[in-house]
Amino acid sequence: MTHLTPTSTLAAPTRTVGAHAAPTVTALAKALREENQLLLDLASILKRQREALARDDLQGLDDSVFATHRVLVTLGEARRRRITLNQRLGEADDLSMPALLDTFGGTPPAEVQSAIDALTDTGELLHQEVQLNQRVLRTAVEAGDQLVRALAGALQPPSTYGRDGGTPGDPGLLDRTI
Question: What mean pLDDT do residues 45-59 have?
Answer without folding.
Answer: 91
